[in-house]
Amino acid sequence: MESSKPQSFFQDIRSRELNGFRVRKRPYIATESSEFDQIGAVSVEHDGSNAPPMALSFCKTSKNSHILAVTDEDGYVSLFNTRLNFPSSSTYQQNAEKARVCDWIAHDNAIFDICWIKEDCNLLTASGDQSIKVWDVNVKKCLVALIGHTGSVKSLCSHPTNNDLIVSGSRDGSFALWDLRSSRSSQEKFCISPTAAISGAHISTKGKRVRRGKAASMSITSVLYLKDEVSIATAGAVDSIVKFWDTRSLKSPVAQACPDPELSTQKERRLHGISSLSQDKNGVFLSASCMDNRIYLYNLLQLEKGPAKSFCGCRIESFFVKAALSPDAAHILSGSSDGNAYLWQVNKPQSDPTILKSHDGEVTAVDWCLSEIGKIATSSDDFTVRYWNINGCCYSKTRSPCSTRRRVMALPKMERRKLVMEKEQTDLKNGSESFPSNEVSLQQTNSQNPIPMPKMSTPESHKKRTSFCLDVEETCERTPEAAFKSPSSVLNPPSSLKRKTIRDYFLMSS
Fold it and tell me: Which of 16, 350, 422, 505 sits at a 20 to 30 Å CA gap from 34?
């Protein structure tokens, strides 16, 4: 067999410039669940009494990313250090005592959702006592309470860039907007009222009579502040429709999405509700965990096409079972009523999910660590929280096709100027040929009375500035999004343009 001649360093660089080069993003997860490394498990208990965990969330900043907040049915908030190593002989109770940073009673009822804000200094808690509280984590003190819902607060989310703005969804069928900078209530100085509230956001338009025991079907189960900073996504228990709202005009949703837009009857659409919504770090994709035992993935820039992909394999038999899209939108993690957690590769929706087997009860809340790639956490009705490392041996060496990126090579400055000058000469030549009569008359005039023509050139002091302007102009012309007018400006609009939302790109479904 003939051996290939090794390339030199410069040949290798040249080959990368011409043929593209691979960038290693997050590697793909292997399918063997036995390779997953469970790095810790702690029990959720207080004063010897166990309580099922309800919500969990890793801190958002890199310095605190190892801190995991856990809430439970008794109204406690507990913070755990997930970087500690536990001896194999220790019990879950001993692990909890070792890893627990602090805990306190935040509400007299179950806490259904939590959210870190303001560089992990404050923590929001949404409770069954119909209130939301803002906590100073360092001193475990309640700073303010958000009062206005008439049912259990099931979900909350903060604004992507302004943590003073909050959206919440309640079992009373409404979602509300809050501003922490608002003036306090005159009666109670520690209370804030909502700045806006929409009632009946997911009630059936047909107004059918609700059967006994089904009063909670109008509940708002999940809310999200989208990355365009002005749009909100909501989902409810009544149907599988995700509605999108513009916070500047909340009269009606600006768009909506459902698994099958072609369903002819409202009865068919009401068969399944949605237990949770999640979005990736860039805000391009949104996942909806549906009670039909499927998780639907939507592209926010192509909502009219319905779900881009769907994932099955888990059992979603209660609204406590949640799912979370990974920050890079490469994987989806979900709990399940069968006592397992499931993990899918987004680009392989038809493949069998990886199963994390360890819990002994329904797996409910799940979360991804933003800064420590590969760390996830799962909670269960078996009164435990487990965190896993899916990074090391659990990743295969296969690279994603989307990880291949091509380098955009710009022409040297001299070549660009040469092309521009040649283009100007060609334009002048074409312009002179299009007016032959004028050219003849000018030649005759010049032959009789020759007039010295001034020399046209760019002053030396302006050459550098002109060259820079040409570079900028060419860069703008070569931008793919500018050429094709991509709607991705909804996520990062230019400052010179009017802010756009999904309203500008999608028509509201009839």
Answer: 350
Question: Is residue 401 predicted with pLDDT exceeding 50?
Answer: no
Is the separation of the CB atoms in 397 and 78 below 8 Å? no
Please tell me the predicted confidence (pLDDT) of residue 203.
81
Say how far apart CA 257 and CA 354 lie, in whole Å. Answer: 28
Cα angle for residues 371, 296, 261 (degrees, 5° grid)? 145
What separation in angstroms does the CA of 111 have from each of 124, 273, 320?
10, 21, 12
Which of 389, 330, 303, 444 minimizes the C-alpha distance to 83?
Answer: 389
DSSP, collapsed to helix, strand or coil, labels residue 248 as coil
CA dist., res. 444 & res. 303, Å (int): 67
**Strands 404-405 and 21-22: what pairing?**
antiparallel
Cβ-defined contacts of 338-346 (< 8 Å, 24+)? 338/314, 338/362, 339/363, 339/380, 339/382, 340/314, 341/366, 341/378, 342/313, 342/314, 343/29, 343/390, 344/295, 344/311, 344/313, 345/28, 345/29, 346/285, 346/297, 346/309
Amino acid at the residue 20: G
Each residue's pLDDT tens digit, 26-62: 444 444 444 567 889 999 999 889 999 999 999 999 9
Q: What is the token pair recorded at 113? A: 């959702």
Place of tokens 């068919």: 268
pLDDT tens-digit readout, 206-228: 544 444 444 447 899 999 999 99
To the nearest whole percent, how much of the chain has pLDDT over 90? 58
Instruction: Tell me how far apart the alpha carbons of residues 48 and 457 are, in angstroms, rounded to a whole number.
Output: 87
State which H helix or E strand residue 468 sits in.
helix 460-478
Place of tokens 């909100």: 232
As a whole number of angstroms, the distance between CA 377 and CA 372 comes to 12
d(CA 295, CA 343): 11
> In this structure, what token pair is assigned to residue 37?
């490394």
What token pair was written down for 200? 């009946």
Alpha-carbon distance of 299 to 325, in angstroms, equals 13
Amino acid at 326: S
> pLDDT per residue over 180-209, tens digit each?
998 776 566 789 999 999 999 998 655 444
114-155 per-position pLDDT tens digit: 999 999 999 999 999 999 999 999 999 999 999 999 999 999
- In 3D, which of 394, 401, 320 has the Cα closest to residue 356? 394
- Quick one: tokens of 185? 């209530």
Helix, strand or coil, per DSSP, at residue 309: strand
Distance set, CA 299 to CA 224, 302, 494 (Å): 15, 5, 21
* 327-380 tens-digit pLDDT: 999 999 999 999 999 999 999 999 999 999 989 999 999 999 999 989 999 999
Q: Is the pTM of this model over 0.70?
A: yes
- What are the structure tokens assigned to 495, written together? 């400052």
